[in-house]
Amino acid sequence: LQGCETIEPPPGVVRFRLVFLPPVRSRLLWRRRWERRWERRRRIDIGNRPTLRLPGELQRQQRLGLPCGGRDRPPQIPAVVAAGTGPRSLVVHPSGKYAYVANQTSGDISQYDIGADGSLAAMTTATVAAGSFPYFVTVSPSGKYAYVANFNDNNISQYDIGADGSLTAMTAATVSAGSFPYSVTVDPSGRYAYAANQGSDDVSQFAIGTDGSLTAITTAVAAGTGPQRVTVDPSGRFVYVTNYDADTVSQYVIGADGSLTAITTAAATGSSPLGVTADPSGRYAYVANAASNDVS
User: Fold this and answer.
1) What is the pLDDT, as a whole number, of residue 2?
2) Closest Cα partner for 185 from 137, 242, 113?
3) How many helices (H) and strands (E) does the chain have?
4) Which candidate in 23, 184, 228, 291 could, as Cys together with 272 as Cys, close a disulfide (CB 3.0–4.6 Å)?
5) Could you give the C-alpha distances from 220 to 258, 259, 290, in angstroms and in order?
6) How far is 253 from 237, CA to CA, in rounded Å?
7) ∠219-223-225 over CA atoms, to 5°?
8) Rg (CA), the chain
9) Which three-class secondary structure state does DSSP give residue 152?
10) Residue 30 predicted with pLDDT over 80
11) Is 28 helix (H, G, I), strand (E, B) or coil?
């Protein structure tokens, strides 16, 4: 074979395996074996010309678009894709078909389709407007709604997600939060949302209506100094918030109405805790400490 192409064998040249047979009938047996082997490898191409079928590895390379000899090379996709100015956070839609990026400086959300090969392609409407300094974007578990924490506007933008994955601002485009909301998250049931407010040192708590809109639940609950990231454990029973300036994690129990009740003692962390997440079992949590360069 030449490269990865399917070509006809040169005249008079065939591929065969040398088989040692008893002298009697050896020529006839070899001829039949060769004919069966040729028929298995033969197929009819354009113009009814007999051609060879590619061996399995070369078929795989052609199917994946790999160059010849590229056994270990993945399909080539663009290394980067353009976003807005100052991209700050990213979330993937629960379906795995769409992605969204919050661009803090340009004040918008980039939206992408995710191809079968994992590459991102900007949607026809590449961006949608958000507030001032959108820091964080999240999507509800149902995949029907998206929410963005606008740091400088002290509010949360809320969007409907269309069948094609595109965002459309709700009739009430924003809902008030505390001072300098840094992040926002939705609980696994999709019924409640929480925002960590870095400026007011508290956590805004919202009920999510049947139309996806947010409604504040009573008042915000106190956190430590400089809360930044908020997450809900997989069971939907607990909330954790990193307090960047206090080197602690505030922890809460979620009530039947979605309201938070602080667990008495905040957990100590390393220096300047930023990211927090819980493992899928809900038994363990981990915190990334920006200043001490370690993980609690």
Assistant:
1) 42
2) 137
3) 2, 23
4) 291
5) 12, 9, 26
6) 6
7) 130
8) 29
9) coil
10) no
11) helix
Count of residues in the chain: 296
Distance CA 91, CA 146 (A): 10
In 3D space, the residue among 123, 118, 196, 228 whose CA is nearest the CA of residue 165 turns out to be: 123
Residue whose pair of structure tokens reads 């020529």 in the numeric block: 27
- Summarize pLDDT for 47-80 with one digit per residue, the tens: 444 444 555 555 555 555 555 554 555 566 788 9
Q: What are the structure tokens assigned to 2, written together?
A: 């030449």
Closest of 280, 285, 279 to residue 263, by C-alpha: 285
Tens digits of residue pLDDT in 79-133: 899 999 999 999 999 999 999 999 999 999 999 999 999 999 999 999 999 999 9
8 Å CB contact between 33 and 19: yes
CA distances from 74 to 39, 66, 82, 94, 294 (A): 33, 7, 22, 25, 33
Tell me how crowded residue 281 is: count the other CB atoms within 10 A of its CB: 9
What b-and-e string marks burial along 215-242, b requiring 16 or more CB atoms within 10 Å of the CB?
eebeebbebbebbbbbbbbeebebbbbb
Rounded CA gap, 80 and 58, in Å? 29
